[in-house]
Design goal:
The protein has 382 residues and is an alpha+beta fold. The chain contains ten helices and 17 strands. Strand 5 and strand 6 form a beta hairpin. It starts with a helix and ends with a strand. Keywords: Endonuclease, Exonuclease, Hydrolase, Nuclease.
Length: 382
């Protein structure tokens, strides 16, 4: 090897090492990603060529500006189109575990989730619920996730194989659809029956969504027990984590065991909201002092001064009827927790991209998405 080639290799290795000091993960609801002339849900819902080009450009612009390394996608109809699109942006690895439903050759229903990565996806699998446990919970023997869940094992720098799960839990939309055109009912009866369908159907959706989260968490714990690999869970949860339906995804109690065992097992097998880990990391940095006794902000140069960053306000990822809520999440295992002594990464940035929701410009955002995009930056701990 010549001196020149050795120098080039050293420079390349240094560049790679520098770029691998951080890892960016995003969850991205694409909102009806379907290439024309196909239609989504109903025959007249078809993007024009101009609209489709605009939608793809919007996606590319986001990826180019924010440069996530791993992305969990929801609402994917056109799988090959998305694969080609992200490949042009440097995502050589792309996986799905399902196909959308096609009716009448061109009407698409039941979109799927997908994952794209700059780092190698070394294995991919569909996560299936434990049916015996589902029946114990009072569910049917044919229970399934409303959208199939991906588990992609990605070779992440410094961590190695990491299990990344992408979900799109059942929506709050009623599971019961009433035929409003039934002529055998009076107008009043139709309204009353609609009310009944809404009450019962909404509760049915809640049961489905909560059951999906529960059975997925059981499978994640089982997988963690077998492999000890770090875990990332990302997606559109269609629910906040604070109202009880999905709160068990952040389980922090364990009864009838010693305190030492409780803390150790909860730490190893349970998940943490990336937002909370971000606040922990910020707090840790604020408490660090250098030799002169000043706050060390070196790892957070991209943020505002810590005094301005606290207290933090979490931005909504979805709006309905004028009210905003957080429906899109990234949950992480202890390997990304700055308070865990053996963690390699910490959450150094948490961003919700939402300008298309709160201040849209039609020429730019007319074919974007109805969700905010959540992006976390994970930095190697010094």
């Amino acid at each position: 090897m010549t001196e020149e080639s050795i120098t080039d290799k050293v420079l390349a290795d240094e560049s790679t090492a520098e770029t691998n000091l951080s890892l960016k993960i995003a969850t991205f609801n694409l909102f009806n990603y379907l290439e024309p002339p196909n239609a989504y849900y109903e025959f007249e819902r078809i993007y024009s060529a101009e609209q489709w080009q605009k939608k793809q450009k919007w996606i590319v612009d986001y990826l180019h500006e924010y440069q996530p390394d791993i992305i969990g996608f929801q609402e994917v109809f056109s799988i090959e189109s998305l694969k080609e699109l992200v490949n042009t942006q440097g995502y050589s690895y792309f996986s799905v575990v399902a196909q959308p439903q096609v009716v009448d050759d061109f009407i698409y229903k039941k979109p799927v989730v997908a994952i794209a990565s700059r780092y190698p996806i070394v294995a991919v699998a569909e996560v299936k619920p434990n049916i015996e446990l589902a029946q114990t919970l009072g569910l049917t023997e044919n229970f399934s996730f409303s959208r199939k869940v991906i588990r992609a094992t990605i070779n992440v720098p410094h961590l190695g194989n990491t299990d990344c799960y992408v979900v799109h839990f059942k929506s709050k939309r009623s599971m019961i659809e009433l035929d409003a055109q039934d002529k055998n009912r009076s107008a009043e009866q139709t309204i009353i029956e609609s009310l009944k369908a809404q009450v019962a159907g909404s509760w049915g959706s809640t049961i489905q969504r909560g059951s999906e989260a529960t059975l997925l968490m059981i499978e994640m714990i089982t997988r963690r027990e077998a492999t000890s690999q770090p875990m990332v869970l990302m997606g559109d949860f269609n629910n906040t984590l604070t109202d009880g339906v999905l709160s068990h995804l952040l389980t922090n109690t364990l009864r009838f065991v010693s305190r030492i065992d409780r803390d150790a097992y909860l730490t190893k097998y349970c998940l943490n909201d990336a937002w909370n880990l971000y606040k922990v990391a910020l707090s840790n940095e604020a408490n660090k002092t250098n030799d002169t006794g000043k706050i060390n902000e070196a790892n957070f140069e991209s943020n505002q001064a810590l005094s301005e960053a606290l207290p933090l306000i979490r931005r909504a990822t979805h709006y309905f009827g004028g009210a905003g809520s957080v429906l899109d999440y990234i949950l992480l295992s202890c390997e990304f927790d700055a308070s865990y002594h053996d963690s390699l990464y910490q959450v150094s940035s948490y961003e919700t991209y939402d300008r298309h929701l709160i201040n849209p410009i039609f020429d730019r955002d007319g074919e974007s998405t109805d969700h905010g995009i959540v992006l976390v930056t994970l930095s190697l701990r010094s």
